[in-house]
Amino acid sequence: MTKNIILFANKKTGLDICEFLVSQNENIFRLYISNFEDDYAKKIISASKLPKEKIFHADIIKEKNHLDTLKTLDVDFMITVYWPFLLSPEIFKISKNGCINFHPSLLPINRGWFPHVHSILDGSPSGVTLHLIDENADTGPILAQKEVPLEFIDTSKTIYEKLQKEIVLLFKENWIKIRNNDILPIPQDESKSIYHKKSETDELDQINLESLSAKELINILRARSFGNKGFAYVTVNNEKIYLNLRLSHYSDFI
């Protein structure tokens, strides 16, 4: 039986999941977008095949009249894919089967922001998790997860892309079981929990070359290099000099 789904979709992962749900003939009967000007948002809207009156900006969900209307709907699942905002219990409890969230870490390790950055820095396991939302950030019971090992040549961008790919695969592999309630959600082990604030990454960026070992410097640069962008910097003559690190197997240079 087709399920009634409210989808909160963002970035490439949101597009991939939207396309998958449409291919499975699921009924996405409401779509929420965080930024209509974003290129991926435009692709998600197109992929959903929904009329304009079924597509909403994130801000509208805060309005009482809109929330009252939501409460009258028959919602089987809510799904948040790389969604940048927390949903209140008043919202996610509307869904009969809860709200599935995508998180690019092995919860409860590295809850919060930029988990891949912290795996590079401290060696914590890297992976992906599907879990149900509860009242707090990234604390809800786990539906499925998979470890995605880091390689020494991984930078913030390459591991981010791997995690995006693997979390989409994890959802596709488990969706039928989830929709049929064949997976028993498992509570997270709070004794293993780690949470990172968004501001923690900013604190990494100013590098003191006199106080770091070669390994520490390489790992900071790996963690703060995202493609052609480098966020870490040294200060020379009161000017910030930004650093970007590229790593590769020898054969790739031939």
Describe this structure in words.
The chain is an alpha/beta fold and 254 residues long. The protein contains eight helices and 13 strands. It has helices spanning 11-23, 39-48, 64-70, 89-92, 115-122, 156-179, 199-204, 214-223, and strands spanning 4-9, 27-33, 55-57, 77-81, 99-103, 111-112, 127-132, 142-147, 195-196, 225-226, 229-230, 233-236, 239-242. The chain has a seven-stranded mixed β-sheet. A two-stranded parallel ribbon has the order 6-9. The longest helix has 24 residues, at 156-179. The radius of gyration is 20 Å and the shape is elongated. The mean pLDDT is 94.
Topology of this protein?
Blueprint lengths: L3 E6 L1 H13 L3 E7 L5 H10 L6 E3 L6 H7 L6 E5 L7 H4 L6 E5 L7 E2 L2 H8 L4 E6 L9 E6 L8 H24 L15 E2 L2 H6 L9 H10 L1 E2 L2 E2 L2 E4 L2 E4 L12
Parallel strand pairs: 1-2, 1-4, 2-3, 4-5, 6-9
Antiparallel strand pairs: 5-7, 7-8, 10-11, 12-13
Span between N and C termini?
54 Å
- SSE succession: EHEHEHEHEEHEEHEHHEEEE
- The total count of helices amounts to 8
Number of strands: 13
Structure in a nutshell:
This protein is of the alpha/beta class. It is built from eight helices and 13 strands. The protein has helices at 11-23, 39-48, 64-70, 89-92, 115-122, 156-179, 199-204, 214-223, and strands at residues 4-9, 27-33, 55-57, 77-81, 99-103, 111-112, 127-132, 142-147, 195-196, 225-226, 229-230, 233-236, 239-242.
Features:
elongated; 254 residues; 7-stranded mixed beta sheet; 8 helices; alpha/beta
